[in-house]
Amino acid sequence: VWGLELVYFENKPGLYLKKDFSKKLISFGFNFDSFFTSYGVAINLQNDLSTFAYINPCGDSAKNITSIQNLGLNVNLKMDFILEFLQAFHDSFSESFLLK
Questions:
Q1: ∠93-8-83 over CA atoms, to 5°?
Q2: What's the pLDDT band for 19 if we cut at 50, 70, 90?
Q3: Cα separation of 47 and 29, whole Å?
Q4: Which residues are catalytic?
Q5: Fewer beta carbons within 10 Å, N or C terminal of the chain?
Q6: Quick one: how far is CA 57 from the chain centroid?
Q7: What is the pLDDT of residue 4?
Q8: Is the pTM of this model over 0.85?
């Protein structure tokens, strides 16, 4: 999506830019506790990244968080974009999570 290549690391929740492994674009998390499962996915489009300075995002430094806007890309939130992102997310992780 957006012509970006993203990679993930087993011990670091999220997706990082392939050209700069230190830059995190997408965060996701899963929690399993007492028969309950919770999960979340967040993509930084054009949000204020300064708020990350107040937290420890997934054990990473806030300075490593980036956004589509900070990368100089046009953010288009039309339905075509949403469908393209969801398809790319599914294609990238279906094999990893054995969802075929």
A1: 45
A2: very high
A3: 19
A4: 58
A5: C
A6: 12
A7: 83
A8: no
Contacts by residues 4-13 (CB-CB < 8 Å, ≥ 24 positions apart):
4/71, 4/73, 6/92, 12/58, 12/59, 12/60, 13/58
CB atoms within 10 A of CB 66: 17
Record the tokens describing residue 4, joined without a space.
Answer: 């970006």
pLDDT of residue 100: 47
DSSP H helices, the chain, are: 79-94
pLDDT tens digits for range 42-91: 888 888 888 888 877 777 777 888 888 888 887 666 667 778 777 877 77
What is the amino acid identity at position 37? Answer: T
